Automatic annotation (TrEMBL):
UniProt cross-references to SMART domains, sorted A to Z: Resolvase
A Pfam family of this chain: Recombinase
Top-level taxon: Bacteria
PANTHER family hit by this protein: DNA RECOMBINASE-RELATED, DNA-INVERTASE FROM LAMBDOID PROPHAGE
Domain Resolvase/invertase-type recombinase catalytic: 27-184
Lineage: Bacteria, Bacillati, Actinomycetota, Actinomycetes, Kitasatosporales
Coiled coil: none
Gene3D superfamilies referenced in this protein's UniProt entry, alphabetically: Putative Large Serine Recombinase, Chain B, Domain 2, Resolvase, N-terminal catalytic domain
InterPro entries: DNA_bind_recomb_sf (IPR038109), DNA_bind_recombinase_dom (IPR011109), Resolv_N (IPR006119), Resolvase-like_N_sf (IPR036162), SSR_resolvase (IPR050639)
GO MF annotations, alphabetized: DNA binding; DNA strand exchange activity
Name of the protein in question: Resolvase/invertase-type recombinase catalytic domain-containing protein
């Protein structure tokens, strides 16, 4: 910014006229493309480099290039984890010295003074992530500059422009997700399948579905519906599997034993497993309805999904494919499953709660991970395995009694 209150005569020849920067200017490029399939990194990244280069000084060049092919909603520590072979196969002419997290990790070591990007959403679409990255780089002595921001003016004006751009990027992302999810909901309501067809179905192209024209990246995927597998024994196997849970209250191990005892009657690729059995029993598509949004993949952890509550599932209004069981039978199976799990997981804990109640204490779960849960019992805290083994129950009860 030019000082509007300059001295009345030219003093620029004096040694302390300008603040001396002991570090030489070292600028790097930062870029991002969301996907390699729906976008063209080979053209997008070089275009971003050209635009960011406009903020270089005369004769200056980038000392390194950091770019990712990742969603802009991923936090910095999950960016750039793709294998180098994937990046090599993209055919991007721009060299790659790492991704966003690599830049943050190496900024101080490399003596980076400026990070140049096309615009803020190339850092991240999530405003918190882009702000965090900016502040961390500034702490390390690197200024973040976006090519689409005006030069000159006041600092407050520059900051206002930047924050508006960051907010707009996150709002745009939310809007696109809403539109995308709305389309997926209508897809399920129309009776079309998402994902791999569950046993005992196969997915076939619906010839009566609306024909979509060719998109930017070639022909759109056809809509598919579920139909029965040609081997009718599979339908009988799925029906028997659900009956064993619903009527005989068998756990997965018992069901697997019965199914594997007659392989010709209950065919399966590979072997019946605990995950497959429990997954089929829990799958509402076996009731003939199309169901979507049972899981959420946007958990902030790459490769991890979480189950959504049934209240958030999207159901087709009518039966759209041949049902294995009725919806009422599916519901009964879920009730039995819940009871079986309560018997395994909550039986020992129920004894601890009962003993604590007799002592006037309450048992509250504080936090948990995949293997243990931290409980508060009165004014004490204790970590117990999940589920609680019977061998520990009496010890916990005795400890409560002695403490009281």
């Amino acid at each position: 910014m030019t000082n509007p209150f300059a001295p009345p005569i030219d003093l620029s020849h004096l040694p302390n006229y300008r603040q001396a920067d002991a570090r030489p200017r070292r600028a790097v490029f930062l870029g991002r493309v969301s996907t390699k399939d729906r976008q063209l990194p080979a053209s997008s990244i070089p275009r971003q480099v050209v635009l960011a280069s406009e903020r270089l000084d005369l004769g200056e060049e980038f000392i390194a290039h950091f770019w990712d092919v990742e969603s802009g909603m991923l936090p910095a520590h999950l960016r750039g984890l793709g294998p180098q072979e994937m990046y090599d196969g993209l055919g991007v002419p721009t060299p790659r010295d790492g991704g966003l997290q690599d830049l943050v990790d190496r900024a101080e070591q490399m003596g980076i003074t400026h990070v140049l990007a096309e615009r803020s959403d190339r850092v991240a679409r999530a405003m918190l992530t882009s702000l965090t990255v900016e502040h961390e780089l500034e702490r390390l002595g690197a200024e973040v500059i976006y090519a689409n921001e005006p030069t000159g003016g006041t600092e407050s004006g520059r900051l206002r422009t930047r924050r508006y751009g960051q907010a707009e990027a996150e709002i745009y992302r939310a809007t696109m997700i809403e539109m995308s999810m709305g389309g997926q909901f209508q897809h399920a309501i129309g009776g079309w399948n998402h994902g791999y067809p569950p046993y005992p179905y196969v997915a076939v192209v619906d010839e009566d579905a609306p024909v979509r024209g060719q998109g930017r990246f070639g022909e759109m995927r056809p809509k598919k519906k579920l139909v029965s597998h040609p081997d009718e024994r599979r339908f009988d196997a799925a029906r028997e599997l659900c009956r064993l849970r619903r009527e005989e209250h068998l756990r997965a191990a018992g069901i697997i034993t019965i199914l594997e005892s007659e392989p010709d009657r209950y065919p399966i690729e590979g072997r019946w497993t605990h995950t497959r059995v429990e997954g089929l029993i829990a799958n509402p598509k076996l009731s003939g309805y199309q169901v979507y949004n049972r899981k959420s993949s946007r958990t902030g952890r790459a490769g991890f999904s979480r189950r959504n509550p049934i209240s958030q599932w999207v159901w087709s209004p009518n039966v759209v494919h041949k049902p294995v069981i009725s919806l009422e039978e599916w519901m009964q199976a879920q009730e039995v499953t819940a009871g079986l799990r309560a018997g395994v997981e909550d039986g020992p804990l129920l004894r601890i709660r009962t003993a604590a109640s007799r002592l006037g204490l309450t048992v509250t779960a504080v936090s948990s991970n995949a293997t243990h849960t931290l409980y508060r019992i009165g004014n004490r805290q204790i970590a117990l395995p999940t589920p609680v083994p019977d061998t520990l129950v009496q010890q916990v009860i005795e400890d409560m009694g002695s403490a009281a």
